[in-house]
Amino acid sequence: MSGEESKAEQITARIALSIDEGVMPKGTRLRSLRAAAATYGVSKNTVVEAYDRLIARGYVEPRHGAGYFVTGIRPRTEDPVTARLVEAVDIATLLREQLEHSFTVRLGEGRPPAEWVERSVLKSHIRNIASGQRGLFEHAYESPIGFEPLRETLSRMLAERSIAVRPEHILLTLGANHAFDLIIRQYLRAGDVVLTDTPGYYPLFAKLKLAGIRMVGVQRGAEGPDPDDLARKAQASGARFFFTQSLAHNPTGGSLTLGRAHDILRIAENLDFMVVEDDAFGDLMPPSAARLAALDQLRRVIYVGTFAKILSASLRVGYVAASPEIIAHLVNMKMLTIVNSSGYVERIVHAVLNDGHYRHHLKRLNGRVKEAQLSAVRILRKLGLRPEIEETDGYYMWVALPQGVDDIELTRRAARESIFLAPGSVFEIGGGSGDRRFLRLNVAYVSDTRFHEFVRRELASPFGAPP
């Protein structure tokens, strides 16, 4: 926990104790942000973080224009699992913003616009399947490993990527996040240490936090994870797993090079740890792109894919390809936790993949992404912002903010104007370090002029002045 996080938690605990002991009864107004910052000797941002945690835990409610007030609802004593859940949700606040709030401008969105994906290829398939024209619905529990014809199709698709895997060694899941959850449940226990990309995939951070797993961040650059950092931290920590996204990395947009891939597998072999490779954008990337699973042939790599980023976030279908032993374990874990996944949805995805239009959809989507990337670079230059990697893959750019600009505070200011930003701190283990702060931007939305106006206004004036 970083220093600022620790201070925020200390303030949260102090106020919560006063409420629990009746010192601050229902209706009590908390100090203003400015007054609390002076009282506790911290920044206003730290007080905001503490008040947000009190709200999340049910102690306090905000009243527009009036301040923060004690609710009078006494939260139940937390057990260790509940406490970890609160911490995990604090980390994954960004995900909640994506799912629940209706922002007008969505620079921080993790998904592509709907018109780029689902409207292109899904409507006719959903209509045909729902009407029963293809006779695909059966009212019975199916095998927990997933719809066999879809696994056969995936086996052929992965062969194009030089990953040789039989259909029975592919497990269908409810998206990539479900795949991570199964792997964590099966192979990790509270107190274990894992390695992850930093910056990296923040929902994964939240899952690991919830499970009581300690994360050690491996620095991520334009060519992939830093091999020296990986070797040093793997040896020092004794970690048994390394979670990484090889291609179209979220949030930086960078992709693994072949040489770096060889380095990672050599280190994993020497220090005896497994690699969980996330290939969320696999269908958008060339089959020849550097994939750890292709080089390793699933001996030490567990390969995770999904269709959420390519077809629709509502089609919760993903998969795990791994060795027979690992798949057998994960099938049992899936069966014990959710019985099986949706055969209906798996049939829809199978129908889409086997339709001749799917490859045309990918080609069209790739064209839109590339065009948006080029446009985003030009626009950001005019705004005085710079992506860390200009020639990115996928939907994201990792953009450095000017010195002294706080990404969390900038995100809060943007939200007041219905502009959704993704602050870089949530993508970094421990919330980031040093003076550099970043935003993850979705290239599909960078062209919105309301974002341009906001950036020019905010970054041209002394940051920290009242909006």
TrEMBL record:
One Pfam family per UniProt: Aminotran_1_2
Highest taxon in the source lineage: Bacteria
A GO MF term: DNA binding
Annotated ranges, domain HTH gntR-type: 5-73
SUPFAM superfamilies referenced in this protein's UniProt entry, alphabetically: PLP-dependent transferases (SSF53383), Winged helix' DNA-binding domain (SSF46785)
Family annotation (InterPro entries): Aminotransferase_I/II_large (IPR004839), HTH_trans_reg/aminotransferase (IPR051446), PyrdxlP-dep_Trfase (IPR015424), PyrdxlP-dep_Trfase_major (IPR015421), Tscrpt_reg_HTH_GntR (IPR000524), WH-like_DNA-bd_sf (IPR036388), WH_DNA-bd_sf (IPR036390)
Keyword presence, DNA-binding: yes
Record-stated family: In the C-terminal section; belongs to the class-I pyridoxal-phosphate-dependent aminotransferase family.
Listed name of the protein: HTH gntR-type domain-containing protein
